[in-house]
Amino acid sequence: MTAPASVPEIRKGLAGVVVDTTAISKVNPETNSLLYRGYPVQQLAATKRFEEVAYLLWHGELPDAAQLAEFRAAERAGRALQPNVKAAIDLLPTTAHPMDVVRTAVSVIGASDPTTDDASREANLAKSMSLFAALPAIVAYDQRRRRGEDLVPPRDDLDYSANFLHMSFGEVPEQVVVDAFDVSMILYAEHSFNASTFTARVITSTLSDLYSAVTGAIGALKGPLHGGANEAVMRIFDEIGEAENVVPWLDAALAEKRKIMGFGHRVYKNGDSRVPTMKASLDTLIAYYDRPDLAELYDTLSGEFVERKGIHPNLDYPSGPAYHLMGYDTETFTPLFVASRVTGWTAHIIEQAASNALIRPLSHYDGVDERSV
Ligand code: ACO
Q: Can you tell me the distance from the alpha carbon of 227 to that of 217, in angstroms, rounded to the nearest whole number?
């Protein structure tokens, strides 16, 4: 962008600005790849469980058998919904958006933890584990209470994803569903300096605490230009109804200059590296639940939109309908993203704290000239 001589170059939205280094993940739009600590996310999704990926993000290496057993034991020990967190959730109306509920619950956990202001790596890892372990109960319980259902206690004999689904629905679905859920958790876990992660790093850079940083990140993720898009995708599907309505719906939406949620990305311009893996899981779910109508709607909308605008689906496009098929309410989709991304956020909080500089950019003033009162 060429600017008048007196105006410094301004990168709206920090587009294209490199603000720091990170060793956690690498997004490469040229090769359409995403690495977590050096490992392609597709390989992790195909061979590892979400707990192993969480360990990798925090510690830099995949766990060996003993490390994984210890990690899983810690996660299982923190699964139960704490009475003060449940009481706080119960104070909120069932009409509250679940992202507001999750944000409040994390805030309550922070306010109740005597180690909140201990920013050592050990204390932050312990807090990260407590949020990682607690979030499934929070997300599951909030959906259940909105449905007029009771809290389901955790099951210690289940892995993370199977237990999450059990606490959500009161039963463990077939392995094919658990696997698709686990893949979604792995794919959502980390994506470098996205808006919510950057929010967490900004908060950490002031020497504020991990819970404050995660609470802020949840606020950033809620917006439909970021995590809120997975919910918005399903609302679009509901609006369109069936594949034969796609063309007139899209004609009208584009004429109104509407953003089509689940498409486009700040970094990837030729397709999101995570989409093929999540689409494969969605296809499995579509076959399992026998919903060829949903597949047709999905393919017709993406085919038409890519052809007309050259803008590709992002991860929220396949994950929204996948969560719908699993039985989640549409407004619960973004809290599921929170449960996963908390691993990436906390890895970044720990990285930021280890090599901190206050994040404080400049602005160019373009208001009225100086004047007297
Ligand atoms: N629907 C319609 N038009 C779009 C879309 C879309 N989804 N995405 C981009 N465009 C258009 C813009 O209108 C703009 O057109 P113009 O130049 O004629 O004004 C052009 O493409 C560039 O778009 P920007 O919004 O300026 O690009 P940016 O890099 O800021 O956008 C963003 C990235 C915000 C994700 C955008 O693509 C978008 O709003 N998508 C929909 C929301 C969404 O799906 N978000 C999820 C992101 S991924 C994640 O959080 C997992």
A: 11
